[in-house]
Write a structure and sequence with these properties.
The complex is a heterodimer of chains A (368) and B (154). Chain A is built from ten helices and twelve strands. With 368 residues, chain A is an alpha+beta fold. The longest helix of chain A is centred in the middle third of the chain and has 63 residues. Chain B is α/β, with parallel strands linked by helices and 154 residues long. Chain B is built from five helices and six strands; from the N terminus they run βαβαβαββαβα. The chains are: A alpha+beta (368), B alpha/beta (154).
Chain lengths: 368, 154
């Protein structure tokens, strides 16, 4: 008890009611404070103020002389508390929020601040402990964390649902694309198979013409999903693809196909009608401009001019017959589709040959 | 330069109408159709028995999307060339499963004929006669092989 007597001389003696103002302040403050003896094993409590007794529900005799373990209920003091005390005995301050218990067993969150108090020789003589009940703040914090966890879980589950839905849609799009391509292939093969059996030349040519139209639409579908942007259609690439087939199908070594293609994009919705127009104009030139024995060239060019796509198919063949323009099926298709595309169509003799110019207005957002 | 020997061709396609029409195209360019398989098992067995120079392989067969495995097996074990013919060009593995290239569906009569003539020259002469024709995409390995040999030959 030597320390206690010593502390009675230097500080404020615990339990004594006629005390100096400083001791009265520590005893009477609203902040719960405990002072422990650093020199005794387990650092027993020397002093606990009224606020601490009010907070924990103990009477003063019930706490004096005990180590602080009772604050943590039936269990042994948590490792954090033991570490804090060890820090204080080593001369270091420490702070933590620990779950603590009142005399009646009810729990509260205790914001604990421990600080060593040294004597004149510099040794740690006392441990000063300030306690604050932060249960409400802690409860709010836990509720906030909990609601954040719920929100995050909700967000994650929604993200997973959206990803799954997108994956499903993408798979569906691929499946539909695959079916469209395979069905177009089937239609082409059917027409080819039948054309092989037809003896009548004009019927066979009509079927071949239809086959070329189906192939033009098939070429559109083959190209449509090749770009990252599925809403636009590259006219130049399409013409390169299509003309490779048309020239081969014509079987004429004496005809040249010249391509002068500028990069032009149209909305995907215009791709099929435009493809059919290009197909008709080129196959028309191949069929009518060069009778057997007449060599020549067909030039196909694309230009982007003032938000319009200008497509030109020119040949140096025999030119248009005199009189009104021909009204064959192919040209009827061209005229109807140009109406649909709101396109302007000009067909004129160019000495030698014929030039067809199609000017298609292209919405600005579709142009590259 | 003499006319190249005709290639023997195995057609692996589950749509019978496509297979029959493809047979016509193969014969029209002077190749020989040696067989037709509709499933991967049949394809591998026929490739093994007939040892074709070239197998035209669809990715989707009667037994599912097994064309890729069939292609790998045919090109590895039977030593023949494989050319994919599929609407799903983007789904092919990076190494083309050992195939020399792909023709995207829907293909045209002309594109198939051009590709067959091109491959015939590549096989018989060991190098490409020029750039691959429109409609045919070569696998990176074969692009290198046939181009490298062309450089050495010239």
């Amino acid at each position: 008890m030597g320390d206690l007597q010593q502390s009675s001389r230097t500080g404020g003696p615990p339990g004594e009611r006629s005390e100096p103002p400083f001791a009265a302040v520590v005893r009477g403050t609203g902040m719960p404070i405990v002072v422990s003896d650093a020199r005794q094993p387990g650092a027993p409590i020397l002093f606990a103020n009224d606020a601490f007794l009010a907070l924990t529900g103990y009477a003063e005799p019930e706490v004096l002389g005990r180590d602080c373990g009772f604050l943590f209920g039936q269990e042994a003091a948590p490792p954090e508390a033991t570490a804090m005390l060890a820090d204080a005995l080593d001369g270091r301050d420490s702070a933590a929020e620990l779950l603590s218990y009142r005399k009646d067993g009810s729990a509260f969150w205790n914001s604990l601040y421990l600080s060593p108090v040294r004597d004149a020789q510099g040794g740690v003589a006392y441990v000063f402990a300030a306690h604050t009940d932060v249960s409400e703040k802690k409860a709010r914090q836990l509720a906030l964390e909990e609601s954040q966890d719920i929100l995050l879980a909700d967000l994650n589950s929604r993200t997973r649902e959206l990803e799954a839905a997108l994956e499903q849609k993408t798979a569906l799009l691929h499946e539909v694309d695959h079916r469209v391509k395979n069905n177009l292939q089937l239609i082409s093969s059917l027409m080819l198979l039948q054309s092989r059996r037809i003896q009548d030349e004009s019927t066979r040519l009509a079927l071949r013409g239809m086959l070329e139209r189906v192939s033009a639409i098939a070429t559109v579908h083959r190209r449509l999903f090749q770009n990252a942007d599925v809403t636009r259609f590259d006219v130049a690439e399409f013409i390169r693809d299509l003309t490779g087939d048309l020239a081969g199908a014509a079987g004429r070594d004496d005809l040249q196909l010249r391509l002068d293609l500028e990069h032009v994009a149209v909305p995907a919705s215009q791709a099929a009608p435009l493809a059919l127009v290009v197909n008709e104009l080129i196959s028309n030139a191949l069929k009518h401009a060069f009778p057997p024995g007449r060599a020549g060239a067909i030039t196909v060019s694309t230009r982007m001019l003032d938000s319009a796509c200008v497509l030109t198919v020119a040949d140096d063949g025999i030119g248009l017959p005199p009189g009104p323009p021909p009204r064959n099926f192919g040209m009827t298709i061209v005229q109807l589709l140009c109406q649909q595309l709101r396109a302007n169509l000009e067909i004129a003799n160019r000495e030698p040959g014929v030039r067809a110019v199609v000017t298609i207005p292209v919405p600005a957002e579709a142009a590259l | 330069m003499t006319a190249p020997d005709p290639l023997s061709v195995l057609i692996v396609e589950d749509e019978v109408l496509l297979a029959v029409e493809l047979g016509y195209l193969v014969r029209e360019v002077g190749c020989t159709e040696v067989g037709h398989a509709a499933s991967s098992d049949e394809a591998i067995r026929l490739a093994h028995d007939l040892g074709p120079d070239l197998a035209l392989v669809d990715v989707h067969l009667l037994d599912g999307p097994t064309g890729i495995d069939a292609a790998r097996s045919i090109s590895t074990d039977c030593g023949g060339l494989v050319l994919f013919m599929t609407a799903n060009v983007k789904r092919l593995p990076e190494d083309f499963a050992g195939a020399c290239g792909v023709i995207g569906k829907p293909y045209s009569e002309a594109a198939v004929k051009r590709a067959l003539c091109f491959l015939q020259t590549c096989v018989r002469e060991g190098h490409a006669p020029g750039a691959p024709p429109v409609g045919l995409t070569l696998a990176p390995a074969f692009e290198t092989r046939w181009r490298a040999d062309m450089a050495r030959a010239s």
